[in-house]
Design goal:
This protein is of the alpha/beta class. The chain has three domains: 242 residues, 4-Layer Sandwich (Glutamine Phosphoribosylpyrophosphate, subunit 1, domain 1), CATH 3.60.20.10; 206 residues, 3-Layer(aba) Sandwich (Rossmann fold); 167 residues, Glucose-6-phosphate isomerase like protein, domain 1 (Rossmann fold), CATH 3.40.50.10490. 36% of the residues lie in helices and 22% in strands. It contains 19 helices and 25 strands. A hairpin with a 6-residue loop joins β7 and β8. The radius of gyration is 26 Å and the shape is globular. Bound molecules: fructose -6-phosphate (F6R). Fructose -6-phosphate binds next to α9 and α16.
Length: 621
């Protein structure tokens, strides 16, 4: 979704804006632009397409922009109006120039009103209208900051803006009410604002996350916060970010996605360390925190999520029901929020969202809070909106995930749900202590096992690459599995669709014969996920059915399962089941389906880290 960066201070503003916007590219965008002060006037450079187009415009411009020390920039993910240069941000209305992220729901009413003032918006966007409101407030006698504040109170829907005025050089004003906004003081003197913390890390690790209804004013002296409704000054607490700027680079990998797949062992260890109480010796000792108090009281759990996070939630259901014997339901947030569901007393609703910003998931948590239902969030982004909407949060510690396709955040989401299940299993004596202890010991071994298999000389990289080379021209792909492997089949197909743009479906293996098997012929590839678990034999029968109809088979199964292997055209081995509890196999299968999709996408030549039409945090419904 849209990205915002603003800077004022003593450094070259345009460089900071471009670098910051590059750091936000992972959010997805289809046009971009910057605005900056030069000799007391604001210049705009914007274009449809990638940021490089804006850079070209800048390089061709006179006079050179390098002396500018105040400006704002934007990457736009089109919602209202096509992704054209005209609709790209920043927008100018008279002396007001602004960037906007989110949706102005009452834009049609505002537009009608603005037209009655004799004004004509130049773009199809809702965003541009805000400039007319600010201009009118200033004409009515308000100061620039107050005009932005008052105008913002007229907007319905969740959004954030950052605004400059040609009459007030050296001032940038941001408002947050919905879409996130983060601010920081430049230690060299100045202020920087952005949609998330990543662009700020080049300048400082000490940041301020704006609350809903905060106005921030940045000048070369630093930042001040005000309340949106009253205009009164407010104080906000600083947060020290532990993500270093190095973590934002590719570190020798061809793509962020590949790097992030390889970071899964570390992400799992970091998440274990951050959630467990290392001083305790019992298995699954969750560190005491508000989230644990809420879990303790759960008689029923409802997991709500979208996309990949929904797949992680499907696995969470398996673990919570199997180990903790807690009835668990999994819901797509976009469906659940409009369904008037029955929530039984004792239910805890958990919103699972790597970004912490997904509009539908947040909407469910908000509805539940209004109904008095206890809520939890599972997220990777500290201080993201979910931490405000949920009663408490369990954080994954995957580190920054820049590739749009979720990989290490998926694994760490699974881990959090497994940890919760193991903890509740012990607390409620719902499973045998011996079994849960074995599960925990195996879990501790898991990161090492994963890293051995992921190494270049390990079991996976070469066979996956080879399979991809043989398969990438296939007409379509099915991922099939049963039990734990079914959500992974869904995830494999989603990954492949989103980054390789090919038709792929994830299916419960037993469902194939109820319709989709009609699609199978010798141009179709079927990825059969059948580790040696209690579902293996049934899945192999389903494999035989598609093989008989000519499908090319890729098997993901236990090393040494020669029967299974002999039925496959390609074989990706999993470590021996004796090395690991079957509940943990999803952590090994996840990187396999991610890598297979990655390799297929590379062969297709797509933009792996920034797939078309997609955004990393989906802040609109
Ligand atoms: C796919 C992917 C998406 C997200 C979905 C929800 O790789 O990343 O399907 O999982 O948009 O996002 P979050 O987890 O941020 O709520």
């Amino acid at each position: 979704m849209c990205g915002i960066v603003g800077y004022v201070g003593h450094r070259p503003a345009v460089e900071i804006l471009l670098k910051g916007l590059k750091r936000l590219e992972y959010r997805g965008y289809d046009s971009a632009g910057v605005a900056f002060f030069m000799n007391g006037k604001i210049q705009l450079k914007k274009s449809e397409g990638k940021l490089e187009n804006v850079e070209k415009l800048l390089n061709a411009s006179e006079p050179p922009y390098s002396s500018a020390t105040c400006g704002i920039g934007h990457t736009r993910w089109a919602t209202h109006g096509k992704p054209t240069t005209q609709n790209a941000h920043p927008h100018r209305t008279g002396h007001i120039v602004l960037v906007h992220n989110g949706i102005i729901e009452n834009y049609q009413d505002l537009k009608k009103e603005i037209i009655t003032w004799g004004k004509t918006p130049q773009s199809e966007t809702d965003s541009e209208l805000f400039g007319f409101l600010v201009e009118r407030e200033v004409q009515g006698g308000a100061s620039f900051v107050d005009a932005v504040r008052k105008s913002f109170t007229r907007l319905e829907g969740g959004c954030s803006v950052v605004v400059m005025s040609e009459n007030d050089p050296g001032v940038i004003v941001g408002v947050r009410n919905g879409s996130p906004l983060v601010a920081a003081i430049d230690p060299q003197g100045g202020a920087v604002l952005a949609s998330d913390a990543q662009p700020l890390l080049d300048i400082t690790q000490e940041v301020f996350f704006l609350e809903h209804g905060d106005v921030v004013v940045g000048t070369e002296k630093g930042i001040e916060f005000f309340d949106l409704k009253t205009g009164a000054k407010v104080q906000r607490a600083m947060t020290k970010i532990d993500w270093s700027v190095e973590k934002l680079d590719k570190q020798g990998f061809a793509h962020y996605m590949l790097k992030e797949i390889h970071e899964q062992p570390t992400a799992l260890v970091d998440t274990l360390n951050s959630i467990l109480d290392r001083a305790k010796t019992d298995p699954f000792p969750l560190a005491l925190q508000p989230a644990v108090g809420i879990l303790d009281k759960a008689e029923q759990i409802m997991l709500v999520a979208c996309g990949t996070s929904w797949h992680a939630a499907l696995l969470g259901k398996f673990w919570l029901e199997n180990w903790a014997r807690i009835p668990t339901h999994v819901e797509l947030a976009s469906e659940f929020r409009y369904r008037n569901p029955v929530i039984m007393p004792g239910t805890v609703v958990i919103g699972v969202t790597q970004s912490g910003e997904t509009a539908d998931t947040l909407a469910v948590l908000k509805q539940m809070r209004e109904l008095g239902v206890p809520t939890l969030g599972v997220t990777n982004v500290r201080n993201s909106t979910v931490s405000r909407e949920a009663d408490a949060v369990l954080y994954t510690s995957a580190g920054p995930e820049i590739g749009v396709a979720a990989t290490k955040t998926f694994s760490t989401q699974m881990l959090v749900m497994l940890l919760a299940a193991g903890y509740l299993a012990i607390k409620r004596s719902a499973s045998s202590n011996k079994e849960v202890t074995k599960l925990f010991h195996d879990l501790v071994k898991l990161p090492m096992l994963l890293s051995q298999n992921l190494e270049e000389g390990g079991a996976w990289m070469q066979v996956i690459r080879k399979a991809a080379q043989n398969l990438y021209k296939s007409k379509g792909f099915f991922f099939i599995g049963r039990g734990y492997s079914f959500p992974l089949a869904l995830e494999g197909a989603l990954k492949l669709k989103e980054i390789a743009y090919v038709h792929a479906e994830g299916y419960a293996a037993g469902e194939l014969k109820h319709g989709p098997i009609a699609m199978i012929d010798n141009e179709m590839a079927v990825i059969v996920i059948a580790p040696c678990d209690r579902w293996r034999d049934k899945t192999i029968s389903n494999l035989e059915e598609v093989k008989a109809r000519g499908a090319i088979i890729v098997g993901v199964g236990e090393e040494g399962d020669e029967k299974f292997r002999s039925l496959c055209n390609h074989w990706i081995p999993l470590p021996h089941a004796s090395d690991l509890h079957e509940s943990l196999l999803p952590f090994l299968v996840a990187p396999i389906v991610q890598l297979l999709s990655y390799e297929l996408a590379v062969l297709k030549g797509t933009d792996v880290d920034k797939p078309r039409n997609l955004a990393k945090s989906v802040t609109v419904e």
